[in-house]
Specification:
Length: 333
């Protein structure tokens, strides 16, 4: 056991824990039945996390004791549509999720265009070419010899890119995944349609869909990083084209690939370097902002501009009011 590795104490033992991130695109005839199976499986194994199921497949992040997570991965792969699912492992525990959530949705990733997403047993139909991390470097170097620049295109919300992104990446103006449709149809990226574009996102699932949507809109040479930023970072840590830290959707909120990771984020109050995201004191706040340790009292005691405007517009909304407790577990800057 390495120093600092997550452990979960029981009455007589100390047990390793892990978090896994995964997805699989495949046609699902009865998403509700798969939901019930996944709920039962996770509860029996003592896992917590978030799982989305749709007619297009499954997308999840779960955590718990190592043996339970291994059993979960094995049993999930035993279902024929999910055979071959790749699980990306990281340190963490079930306690980094508030609960187990398993839901059926029209899309695995909410671009808002389920009718434009087509899948078969091999995955997304018409998506960008998959590149292993080393193939990304080979592509960039080959294109440079031809005098052509490769553009990295961020497939995440713009907020996530504040603390980490690929060098010189294009970061679309997106607050949610649904904003990508407006961005792509705006014309502002049309100059890239005849250029090599490498899309990237956390674990790869958003780029499976994004790259297909881009190709449908006339982007001719679109790639995606196999396994996303997670797999790239495991391969190159901070010695490649990635810079900064990775935003993650659990209690850790961000993770580093090495001790050499740069801190790219800036405190919204004083501009000090930080990677710590906070909600404001309002119960309904969903507006994550970066604050350094010296300024962390501000979101803990005041409303942000977004929530202030919402309170003014809807003073009687049931989500208004101070939360009264810490909303998120915070990581070091």
């Amino acid at each position: 056991m390495k120093c600092g590795e997550p452990r979960r104490r029981t009455l007589n033992t100390v047990t390793e824990s892990r978090i896994v991130l995964y997805y699989k695109f495949a046609p699902i005839k009865d998403p509700e039945a798969v939901k019930l199976w996944q709920q039962t499986l996770c509860r029996e194994l003592g896992l917590k996390g978030r799982i989305i199921i749709s007619e297009h497949g499954i997308n999840g992040t779960v955590g718990g004791e190592l043996s339970a997570v291994k059993s979960y991965a094995k049993q999930t792969r035993s279902y024929s549509p999910f055979r071959g699912t790749e699980f990306k492992w990281s340190e963490g525990t079930a306690d980094q999720f508030p609960r187990l959530s398993v839901k059926v949705r029209p899309e695995l990733v909410a671009f808002g265009v389920p009718e434009q997403v087509k899948v078969n047993a091999d995955g997304i139909i018409g998506g960008g070419e998959h590149l292993k991390p080393q193939q990304v470097h080979e592509l960039v170097e080959a294109k440079q010899r031809e005098g052509v620049e490769v553009t990295f295109f961020d497939g995440r919300n713009a907020m996530e890119a504040q603390i980490g992104r690929f060098k010189n990446a294009v970061v679309p103006d997106t607050e949610s995944t649904r904003d990508f449709i407006t961005e792509l149809d705006s014309g502002k990226y049309d100059h890239l349609k005849d250029q090599p574009v490498v899309t990237y996102c956390t674990g790869g699932i958003r780029c499976e869909v994004l790259s297909a949507l881009m190709k449908d809109r006339g982007f001719e040479e679109v790639y995606q990083i196999d396994g996303g930023i997670v797999r790239y970072g495991e391969t190159y840590q901070d010695a490649g084209y990635w810079e900064g830290e990775l935003y993650v959707f659990d209690g850790r909120m961000n993770t580093r690939f090495s001790e050499d990771a740069k801190t790219l984020g800036e405190c919204v109050n004083c501009s000090a370097a930080t990677s710590r995201f906070f909600n404001c004191a309002d119960r309904g706040c969903s507006n994550l902002q970066l604050y350094c340790a010296d300024c962390s009292h501000i979101p803990a005691t005041t409303r942000c501009e977004v929530c202030t405007a919402r309170v003014a517009a809807e003073p009687g909304h049931p989500n208004q009011g101070n939360l009264g407790k810490q909303r998120r577990r915070l990581t070091s800057a």
